[in-house]
Amino acid sequence: MAEHTPVLLEEVLAGLAIRPDGRYCDATFGRGGHTAAILAALGPTGRVVGIDRDPEAIRAGQRRFAGDSRLTLVRGSFGPLEERVRAAGMEGELDGVLLDLGVSSPQLDEASRGFSFMQDGPLDMRMDNESGQSAAQWLAKAGEREIADVLRTLGEERFARRIARAIVAARATAPITRTGELAAIVAAAVPTREPGKHPATRTFQAIRIHVNGELDALASALPQAVRLLAAGGRLCVISFHSLEDRIAKRFIRREEQGDPVYAGLPQVPPHARPRLRRVGGAIVASETEVAANPRARSAVLRVAERLAA
Ligand SMILES: C[S@@+](CC[C@H](N)C(=O)[O-])C[C@H]1O[C@@H](n2cnc3c(N)ncnc32)[C@H](O)[C@@H]1O
User: Fold this and answer.
1) 288-301 pLDDT, tens per residue?
2) Gap from CA of 237 to ligand 1 centroid (Å)
């Protein structure tokens, strides 16, 4: 079975400040690495809801945790987080919500999922590969300017226009259906190389984020996570690139400040009061963890605590 090593595991457990009878949501269940550690810290009355939009993640989780009635798995995007938690039958408030964003190792390693420029496979990139538009379908129809915009904004790719032009020229001859083809088109279009980085890294990241609507799902889930948390409950967000981290960081900062309209006024109504308190700064993986798990290199964990209303 494909494996995924959970990143920042001890830091997440400390961040969630696990209570043995607590109720937690692992909104990015993956292969259940963080969930397993949370369950191990919980007593018999603790509960976990695990969410993942990848049907294979849910199937693997059902096998791995069969018989542990403290865990409920829900398939779907965490975008409508409150709805997913309710669908799991979890009533009342939560003590912690974890978002460990991006893709899992099994998704990247399985060539047939189409996430990797290192191995040739169908150009898919959908986390939920049973619905929505694949990367190949999007690239077949999108306009040159739209492609360039996605590469620039979601991949921070300097050569976005050149790459978009090369994609549009290539698809006029034959549809781009394989990851290997896309990687070769990008490599030929990019004039310089970043040390230690495949020239298609940014393009693949951008298309993956776009096809999966990753930033929208995150922006939508964060305020719902705050509403779901009990006072003292913890929010932990692990991001793997600056776009995600910026969303998490700004969200926590805004929620720490409360509604600026009431700044300096003696009476602040409950809905305008700060709802979160930051717990420490950005947490990154130790050298030891990065040496053992290179995926941890770009991980950044942010932790916040829900304040009483
Ligand atoms: C980095 S992995 C999580 C790994 C997990 N923490 C573990 O230790 O096994 C991210 C997982 O989140 C899922 N995911 C990403 N965005 C999602 C979204 N918007 N809704 C639901 N699941 C999502 C992916 O399918 C993937 O399985």
Assistant:
1) 999 999 999 999 99
2) 12
